[in-house]
Structures are given as C-alpha cells and as structure tokens.
Amino acid sequence: MISPVLAASPQPSPAGWESVRDDFLAFLVTAGWNLLWVAVTIASALLLSWIMRRLISRVVDHIVLGAKSRAAAEDTRAIDMSPLAQVRIVQRTRTLGSILTNIVNVAIVIIAILTIVYILNPGVLASFTLLSAAIGAGLGFGAQNIVKDVLNGIFIVAEDQIGIGDVVDVGLATGIVEYVSVRVTHVRDVNGTLWFVRNGEILRIGNMSQGWSRVVIDVGVPLDADIDAVEDAMLTAAKDLVREPKWRTRILDKPEIWGLESIGGDTVITRLVVKTRPNAKDDVSRALRKRLKTALDELGVPLPQLASTLLTGADAAQSIRGANPPKTKPQQVTPPTPPRLAWRPKKRGRTDGEPPEGTAAP
C-alpha cells in the first residue's frame, strides 16, 4: 500500500528526466574533451622537452667534437698554453648545455601548467594578477635565497668561472665539478664525497684548471752540502724530465731554480719550480720528486726534506712572477738645487745692498 505522503509528492516528468540526462551527458562530453586536451598538453610538453634536449645535446656534441678536432693541430702545445684553450671551450659548452636544459624544462613545465589550468577553468586566469602579486610577495620575503642562487649561478656560468670537469675550491668544498645548474653546483672531493653547493653561498672561486699551474718543490739538504752542485744536479734532473716524450707536452716552460729559500736548523732549503698544464701538475710533481731523489743520491747528498710547497698569502703574492721579476728603466735623479744665500757681496759698480749685521765686509 502506497503512503499518502509519497503519493502526494510531485514526481519528475519524463521531460525533466530527459533534461537531467542531457545535462549529465553534456558534462561528460565536456569533461572528456578537457581530459583529452590535458593529455594532449602533457604529451606536447614532453615531446617539446625531448626535442629541445636532443637539440641542445646535438649542438653541445657538435661544438665538443669540433674543439677536439681543432686541438689535434700541429701547434697543440701553444693551444694548451693559452688560457682560452680548447678544453675550456668543451667544459664551458657542456656547462651551458646543462644550464639551458634546466631552463627549457622549467619553462615548459610552467607553460604546460598554465595551459592545463586554462583548459579546466578559464576563469581562474582572470585573477592571475592577484596570484602573481602574491607570488612576487612570497619571493620577496621567503625565496630570497633561491633568487640569489639563480642569479649567482647565471653570472658564474656566463663569466666562465666554473666548468664541468674543473678542479675548483669554492670555500665550502674542493674537488671536481660534476654538474652545474642555475641553483646548485655538484663538487666531488678526493674522497668521493659529492658536495651540493648553493650558488648563492659561493663567495670566491679558486679554479685550478684554467691556464697553467706551477709545481713548487723545496729540497732540503745538510748545511755542509755544496749548494751550487746541488742546484746543478736538481736543474739537470728537471731538464732530463722535460726531454722525455711522455712529459714534453705536459710541461709548458723550462724548469727554474729560484735559489736558496731559507736556512733553518741543520737544513738548507733550495726551491725548484716547473710550469705545467693544469691537469698534469700532480703527475709532474711526483715524477720530478723521484728524479730529484735519484740525482741527489748519486751526488751523495742526503735528503732531510723533499716536499711540494703550496705558496699562500704574502709568499704567493711575492712569487707570482717567480725568479724573473719585471725589468724597469732606471730613473734619472736630478740633484737638489743649492739653497740661495741670504746675502751676497755687492758687485762692482753697485751701491745697493749692505752686509747683514755681524758679517764682515769683504
């Protein structure tokens, strides 16, 4: 038996049911098209990102291969001696490639998100002005470090301060640069630890892979040793090392004896320096120490001390140009003018002027 209340309640007409059905079908069609366009946007973003990464990779590989082929010229040593060597072009190109890849990925993601938001609700972008103002205020107060990291990273790469493969000292870490982005730099030290250094925290950079390096070896000998004979043996051993084909391309200049460096206790310190390629400094230093040890053993001179030296501070500043300081032209010194006498005897025929008091007349 049907309740009187249910019987009295209005029942939807067939036309009403058709209207609800049509509205539901229209919603499904609109949602389906929106989802389809969202999928197309995501697929287009992924395809564009892949194309751009492939294009950047092809350009980087083309520049790297070109630099390597040009480095095979006859005057390879002159190319390596230049601060703008081909290896710097390779390292800088790879660094710029990684930076451009990051920028392209971020730009594509932002554009894809805005497109998806517009597809789902076009009215949201109408209030984008307020949203951008809020984002700007948030960046001004809460994201200052991120902005600082990005700006500093752009300047570091643009000025070629760091390149992938460089051996650098950034204060917070020392090692080989493995990756550079607009925000962080990856540095792996000699122990294998990977350091993530924010670009905004880098206050100074010491790049050990640009231009050239210098091996500085201090040789300590007893006080009674013949210093001239020791220096001749050291220089001969270093020159023999330079003549070998293995080391000829790694050493950029002839060895130099900077002479007697210090005298302390029972040891006399003599300094030998060799200018090398940046990536060959440690190898040349090891080989040179071995040669020096053999040469001084043949000379019969014991070695209380034989160590590589890293000059810092005032010693580094005074030794930048080594044992060959710049020559200056001698300056002529004009002799001072003799002071004028307070009184001079009057000449013949003149009546002016009388000798001062207390002075005898001529």
Task: Indicate the topology.
Layout lengths: L3 H5 L5 H57 L5 H6 L4 H35 L7 H15 L1 H15 L8 E3 L4 E7 L3 E5 L5 E5 L7 E2 L5 E10 L4 H17 L1 H4 L7 E9 L2 E10 L4 H19 L5 E4 L4 H6 L44
Antiparallel strand pairs: 1-2, 1-5, 2-3, 3-4, 6-8, 6-9, 7-8
Helix pairs in contact: 2-4, 5-6, 7-9
Task: Summarize this entry quickly.
With 362 residues, the chain is α+β, with helices and mostly antiparallel strands. 49% of the residues lie in helices and 15% in strands. Among the domains are: 20-120; 213-318, Alpha-Beta Plaits (2-Layer Sandwich).
Structural write-up:
This protein has helices at 4-8, 14-70, 76-81, 86-120, 128-142, 144-158, 227-243, 245-248, 281-299, 313-318, and strands at 167-169, 174-180, 184-188, 194-198, 206-207, 213-222, 256-264, 267-276, 305-308. It is of the alpha+beta class and 362 residues long. A hairpin with a 5-residue loop joins strand 3 and strand 4. Among the domains are: 20-120; 213-318, Alpha-Beta Plaits (2-Layer Sandwich). The longest helix is centred in the N-terminal third of the chain and has 57 residues, at 14-70. Residues 72-84 have low confidence and may be disordered. It is elongated and about 120 Å long. It contains 10 helices and 9 strands. The termini are far apart. The chain has a 5-stranded antiparallel β-sheet. A 4-stranded antiparallel β-sheet has the order 7-8-6-9, with helices on one face. It is a multi-pass membrane protein. It holds the Pfam family MS_channel_2nd.
